[in-house]
Amino acid sequence: MTIPTAASVLNDPRIYSAEITANNLVTTRCLRKWIAAGRFPAPDGNLHGRNFWFVSTYQRWQQEVLAGKFKQERRPKRSGSRAA
Is residue 78 part of a domain? Predict the structure, then answer.
């Protein structure tokens, strides 16, 4: 991991986890699981208890998703029928 310079940090805006979850239509729990599984980058920092990523980090992740880097997870179908 490289340490960002002062100029690059000032020019690269932050995006908070609330915006990321809204953009991807996921919950904060799902985002935490993605981070733990390596499907989403760890936060670039924490400001007043709120995790944030630089926009460049988020854009890099979006490019990796579009390139097919992460395999889609498929859950097995439930067996049996539910009682009505």
Answer: no
Residue 31 lies in a domain: yes
Domain membership flag for residue 7: no
**Dihedral sign computed on CA atoms, order 65, 68, 70, 76:** positive
Residues spanned by the domain of 45:
12-66
Residue of 41, 53, 42 lying closest to 15 (CA atoms): 53
Domains held by the chain: number: 1
pTM higher than 0.85 for the full model? no
Q: Is 76 a member of any domain?
A: no
Unique residue bearing structure tokens 């390596």: 38
pLDDT tens, residue order, the chain (84 aa)? 566 665 566 688 999 999 999 999 999 999 999 999 999 999 999 999 999 999 999 999 999 999 988 777 666 777 766 655
How deeply is 16 buried, as exposed, middle or buried, from its count of CB atoms within 10 A (0-12, 13-18, 19+)?
Answer: middle
